[in-house]
Write a structure and sequence with these properties.
It is built from seven helices and 17 strands. It is of the alpha+beta class.
Length: 290
């Protein structure tokens, strides 16, 4: 049973959050957390964690990425589990930190190159994989179509002010006008948090050149001479969404419980694990029509 959603947030950019327990979640099935976007009737969404799969370390245990060095048989079994637990067919993209957007149909194969997708087809789960990047799930107000976005800083920034969110709004018929976008529902999933995400000064400059308001999402690291900053990825995404006229946003607010780096028992993290363990797994965020 899906729990009632919390009111939509329209926050101003927030300072670095205090250390808090993990956000409350409900569990749709083993290893699967609910993605509560205040969805209209006819839409469902969920996100996998690292728990309750079949992979061995360092991919323990519900790794869905077929490009990270995990045993192919384990990945195939984990992907089959995801479909069973969702009750829908997830379509896995080959994500490249770009701005390509695809429409998914009943016969869409896995492995198509894109970082965002949308669909009108019932039972087809728009799915993105993450292990520090931000997953966004979106739904039209009448649940006539749904979309999913993989947003690291490169895809979110894009080129010339056109990132993956702007590209989605161009390609997705439910989001092409500002009046349409005002009714969209959006859920932000777990990602690397604002106390863990170090970026170079060139990243901050690029975002601020596109939108001066972005300066509030970056903070200087004390005692460092290399100019590196901490970046608040969920805040940057919320700013981009608001610029597009999208205000009905729930999910990741930048607090510690949403951070993939610090919540090691719940989430995979490339930044946390790749250097010490050699690799790590991938989680998936999915949204679909009934």
């Amino acid at each position: 049973m899906i729990q009632p959603c919390q009111p939509f947030s329209r926050p101003e950019p927030t300072p670095s959050p205090p250390l808090l327990p993990a956000p409350p979640t409900h569990w749709r099935a083993p290893g699967l957390m609910g993605a509560d976007g205040c969805w209209p009737a006819g839409a469902q969404a969920a996100m996998s964690t690292r728990m309750d799969g079949v992979s061995r370390p360092p991919f323990d245990s519900w790794n869905l990425g077929d490009h990270v060095g995990d045993a192919p048989q384990a990945v195939a079994a984990n992907r089959e589990l995801l479909g069973q637990r969702l009750g829908a067919r997830p379509v896995f993209l080959r994500q490249v930190h770009g701005v390509e957007v695809l429409e998914l149909g009943r016969d869409s194969p896995d492995g198509m190159e894109a970082d965002a997708c949308w669909s009108r087809q019932p039972g087809v789960a728009c799915t993105v994989m993450v292990a520090d990047c931000l997953p966004l799930l979106l739904c039209a107000p009448d649940a006539s179509s749904v979309a999913a976005v993989h947003a690291g800083w490169r895809g979110l920034l894009g080129f010339g002010g056109r990132g993956v969110l702007e590209a989605l709004c161009e390609a997705w018929p439910a989001a092409r006008t500002r009046s349409q976008r005002e009714g969209l529902r959006v859920w932000l999933g777990p990602c690397i948090g604002p106390l863990a995400f170090e970026v170079g000064p060139e990243v901050a400059r690029a975002f601020m050149a596109a939108d001066p308001e972005s300066a509030s999402a970056f903070s200087l690291l004390p005692g460092r001479s290399d100019g590196k900053r901490l970046a608040d990825l969920p805040a940057l995404a919320r700013m981009r969404l608001r610029r597009l006229g999208i205000e009905l946003i729930t999910g990741n607010d930048g607090s510690a419980g949403w951070c993939t780096v610090t919540q090691a028992s719940r989430f995979f993290s490339h930044r946390r694990d790749a250097a010490s363990l050699g690799s790590t797994g991938r989680m998936a965020a999915s949204i679909w029509r009934d």
